[in-house]
Amino acid sequence: MPANTIRPYLLLFALLALALLLSVAVGAVFIPPGVVARMLASLLPGASIVADWPESFAAIVFQIRLPHTALIALTGAALGGSGAVYQGVFRNPLADPYLIGVASGAGLGAVLGLALQWPGQWAGLYLVPVAAFIGALLTISIVYYLARVGRSVPTTTLILAGVAVSAFATSLSSFLMLRSNEELRRAFSWLLGGAIMGGWPPVVAMLPYIVLGLTALVLSGHTLNVLQFGEEQAQQLGIPVERTKLLLILAASLTTAAAVAFSGIIGFIGLIVPHLVRFTWGPDYRRLVPLSIIAGSSALLLADILARIILAPQALPVGIVTAMAGAPFFLWILRRAKDQAYW
Amino acid sequence: MLDLRSLTVAYNGEDILKDVSLHITKGEILAVIGPNGAGKSTLVRTVSGVIPPKRGQVWVDGINMVSVTPIQRARYLAVVPQARQLPAAFTVRQTVLLGRTPYLGWLGRTSRADEAQVDRALEHTRLTGLAERRVGELSGGEQQRVLLARALAQDTPVLLLDEPTTHLDLEHQSNFLNLLQTLVSQKGLAVLVVLHDLNLAGLYADRVALLVEGRVHSTGKPEAVLTSANLSAIYHVPVSVVSHPDYGTPLVLPDGRSKSGQKVN
Hints:
heterodimer; A: mainly alpha; ABC transporter involved in vitamin B12 uptake, BtuC; 15 helices; B: alpha/beta; Rossmann fold; 2 domains; 9 helices; 31% helix
């Protein structure tokens, strides 16, 4: 292992800390990052920090901004990690939870789940990701089946199938939302990547799924490296290929679905982040996956801060910002897909 | 060591390999030769477990490889494929380390012993100096050695090679096969190598198996199999075989001229 193994982690964790701090600081009322840091530190056991900040700050930070920041951070981590793994499983530089339709499928699942009006606040909340997961799996199965040519999944067919299935799923979601009540119509902004509800409940509901999914993805680094040599060589090196690919797709889709269930459909983070990480620190998935998770979290936090600043005091859905930055990036990758020296 | 018993392989309802039986002992190189479409690559893919056979068995060390899991199989059989379309951005060391896959736990964590195996494999293939280079920056001959190193890191008693020299120039062809020969005698490996080039087969193999339309036509010492009569009949061109001036191994000369001494076309 080269000596700089620890450096990318330190760098990205520093960036993440900065993004977290800023995310809590920025908003209608600006709270200086120094104060935010002290407020957070006061939560630590044994901390002796005098609460010299206004009472209103505590409510803003602990009941509004902190849960929102946690939701965005988890969503970014989920999208970065699952994007890296989709790219590895499909051996395709353009595989991204949004472009291959998984996000829209998860969205449709979540909308269906909400439309059925599951009883009970908490039980319902925990089941939304499950409905999103089912939607995600259905979509990825259809896209994979449509896109497969022989033993490979070419970029063009994967993206075409993804776009088509995605458009279909999105139209169904829109239809369901339009013909239902006011409550669901609010979900329109959610479809563009606006959080569906505030406070801690969505964070708590998404956490177990994301932790489970991301743990599985981080542990699959070596396997993903082997898969880059093709299915035949992977099997000759001892990997049960079909079962492994299925498990990886399940884990990545669970992660994506949990993020979509509460944060809506946010494109391009899963595409841009793994590419930048790969470009900077190489293709070894044992690092690529964890680094993409940390970087994805930071990237989405920064996009979300922008989304709150651009039209302040009104907050844009963060999906608009990521698409503004991501679509040109997508075209750039498409142009250089032939020249894959760093892939 | 490696024992193929009556292997029959069907693809789309058609038998590609028919009743193939071969035996390779420790320290022996068996070259499989034959015309295009004879089933040479299918043989490697079947023995390595990619294609399940319709009938027959593959035995290594008294274990039938057809009925074990990929991870168990990969501890007995390592494959050196052709070096084409390798992921360019991986380093040599990262690529060779993948040979340790069958010994890693489900976390994929490598131990110091795994790293030591990788170091040895790099040394044996003279790649130590290139360990941190990206595979895409290497020449075809070096890339082929990387795949050999990966197979050595797999630490198996049997090596299968599928036309490892086809895309190499003369220098790298003989370098590669010399290296293979040295490793086989050092480590006592059993090697099945598919070769396109009959002269390389004659020069480097202990025994040769001639595969024709999915059947073993003949097998034995190179001079017994690579005969003018055999080759002329199978390749449908007149072929002369002479003796190598230094080693006495058979040298195959395709007879491209017609009887009148004019070059055909």
